[in-house]
Amino acid sequence: MACHLGPLIKKHRARRGFDQHAVARALGVSQAQVSKIEAGAVVASYDQMLTLARLFSAPELLLEAIQPCIDAALDLADAAPADPERDILDLIKAAVADMAAALAEADMRTADAATARLITLAQVARVLITQRL
Fold first, then answer.
1. Which of 54, 63, 86, 90 is deepest in the core (most CB within 10 A)?
2. CB neighbours (10 Å) of residue 19?
3. Percentage of the chain with pLDDT > 70?
4. Domain range 6-55, CATH class
C-alpha cells in the first residue's frame, strides 16, 4: 500500500536514533529487509507502517502509507452516479475526515479504527462501482 516511503522511513529512523537492526527487531524482519524497505526495493505493509509510525512517534508515516487508498476512495466517490449506493461513498468521506483528524491529534487508536473502516469501505465501494460498469 505504501509507495516511495523508504527515504521518509530512513529519515525518521535516523532522527529518532534507531539503527536498522532495532527497526528490524520491532518489525520482526531481518536488517536486510529494513535496508530494502528504505531503498524502495520492498514496499512496507500497512502493519509494518503502523509499527513504524508508533516506533518513531510519527503518525504522518501512517497517513502516507494509506494515501493511495484514500485517493482511490475519493476518486470512486467523485465518479459514482447519484443513487442509493452513494451512501457508502459518503461513509468513505466521513472515514477520511475522521482519520485525518485523529492523525492530526496523534490519536493512533482512533486513526487505526478510522483507517480500517476506510480500507473496508473503499473495497466495498470498488466492488459496487465495478458491478455497475
1. 63
2. 11
3. 57
4. mainly alpha
> 52, 40, 57: which is closest to 5 by C-alpha?
40
Look up cell 455497475; give the residue.
132
pTM for the model:
0.56
Q: How far apart are CA 53 and CA 108, in angstroms?
A: 9
> In Å, what is the CA distance from 52 to each residue of 19, 38, 44, 101, 114?
13, 12, 10, 20, 18
Report domain extents, the chain: 6-55, 59-132
State the DSSP code for 20.
H
Nearest to 128 by CA among 71, 68, 76, 67: 76
